[in-house]
Write a structure and sequence with these properties.
alpha+beta, elongated, 2 domains, single chain, four-stranded antiparallel β-sheet, eight-stranded antiparallel β-sheet
Length: 398
Amino acid sequence: MTRTYTAKIEIRRWKAHTCVGCGCQYAYLMCRKLAYGGSTPERATEKVQAAAERTMAHDIDRQPCPTCGLFQPDMIACRRRSLHWWLLLAALLAVGLITGLYLGDVMQAGRALLAGMAQVSGIALLGFLVDLHNPNRDLEANRRMAEQEVAAQRVRVLRPGMPLAPGIEPPAMRPHGLLASAAAVLALLALALPELVRQQSAWPLNANWHPPVAGPGDEIYLYLPDSIASVKGYWTGTSKVTAQVASRPKAGDQVIPEPPPGEFAIESSTRYADWGLSIDNVKPSERSTRQPLWVRLKLPSGGEYAGKILVCKIVLTVRYPVIHNDDRFETSVSDFQHEANLDLAAPLAGRMYQRWWWGGFAGGELLLIVSILARLSGAAALRRMANPAEILEEQAAE
């Protein structure tokens, strides 16, 4: 086993800023503790010293000017940048979560879009509030805080500034903020677009089907309300689906299937799994794993079914392994029947809806990321407005 050596360092140096408002030059005591590992003591020491140099060069503490009370632009930008990076991480995690729930059929298409809109609204609002926060709103309170730090010898005034505080503050980065807000609004519109297209095209929704929009020629699948408990969740099945065209009900009426000979067969399929003659390495938690049953339909492409309601009768024969008390498994066979209504739209409407859905979802999430990147760019521009900071050669006393 390779041994790892750890080197530690404690930084206590004075970092000086020149105020952009009054010209005061002041320094605050920057304290940091760092620890890095390496394959040798020398390598660990090199890494921790390099990290110390980076820390002193780039880290900034929030200390207002003792003369005018102004927080410097780079101090404000550093905090904003950190918070916006956290928002970007939260946005990416939310995208992954919503996508996973949708692809896993845990969340319906419409609810996934609503979740995306809620995510965009929340993160865009937080980003706006981060940029809206102004620590220079009360310069006099900032100046009193700086005086306390001077009295505690954690801040030094190297060169006093103007006797009178000018009362200015770093200007807001309006171009970046406007771009970020515009991108967030466009993200919401993109996420709403698939539903707007569906309503404009008068495509009906089928709440329990995936995808929820279907027309002649589309493929669509349905989870049955039944489930089975089997070894490792294995099951395989054969399906048979017949359908009848139903009369479209008026408000409050029930769907009534038309009498035969309107019944016809629909091409269908379901899960196929082969577990062989034995199942090895079965954990206790896998002895009886519950799995939902599903069936996939390939709808007939005839245009005569467009706009019709189909009453689908589903017969599913399922084979699955179960373990008995002697730890041997045998194959059980069960039949399941289910009836479900399917309201059809125009031919291939389901395929078109899926394209609109993915385009709207991906476009909305990309625009949200553009919005966050615009705010990060604004923070970087704000930081460049500050006067350069410098590290004083004098070591701080312990």
